[in-house]
Amino acid sequence: MTRSVKLLLAGAASAVVFIGCGENGPAPKKPLDTAMAMALGDSISAQAQQVLLKNVSAAMQAGGPEHAVAFCNTRAVPLTDSVAALFDVDVQRLSDRNRNPDNGIRLPQDRAAWERFAGDKSAFVQQDAEGTVWYYKPITVGMPTCLKCHGGAEDIAEGTRAALAEKYPRDRATGYQQGDLRGMWKIGLRPKP
Ligand code: HEC
User: Distance from the CA of 53 to the center of ligand 1, in angstroms?
Assistant: First the structure.
């Protein structure tokens, strides 16, 4: 991870602490500071996206999409986790047609977010009963590169298809077009007590 990313993340981390600032004494549930949580979610998702994109592009250049599939297979989750580890946060990418079996939409809360994005594509935050603030943001197929691994049969090279079939026998993440909703960021922010 680059230094600037680390610095930005450190900046955002202090914002987490700031969310937690309040009166002394126990306060089980902090009120939701929507603007702060949105800014933090935007920042973390943008950083995580940038780290993933940079690494996927480098892997594509080094060995083409086939190599990059292997890279995503082993590195996508550790990379998002490494971003998450800098905060007291969960960072996930979920989809209704997921490639990684762990990235499916299961919780009612996630399903509601997904349904909301079918109509309104703007990110939002909400707070649960335990006080955790959940940030959701749609991920669209924003560039032609995505189609090399998530597009239709005509977009995905033979070797890539083979690599995907081997690593993800139950892959559901193909057949997308430019601009389609591909997934969503889900980031859990826990204000410090
Ligand atoms: C080199 C192939 C490749 C490219 C290019 C690629 N992806 Fe993926 N994508 C993958 C793989 C492999 C996974 C599964 C990663 C894992 O196992 O966690 C994945 C997972 C995802 C997920 C998580 C949900 C799921 O299906 O598991 C999202 C969202 C996603 N990609 C969006 C994108 C977007 C948007 C782009 C373009 C900016 C893109 N991908 C480009 C290979 C690729």
Answer: 10
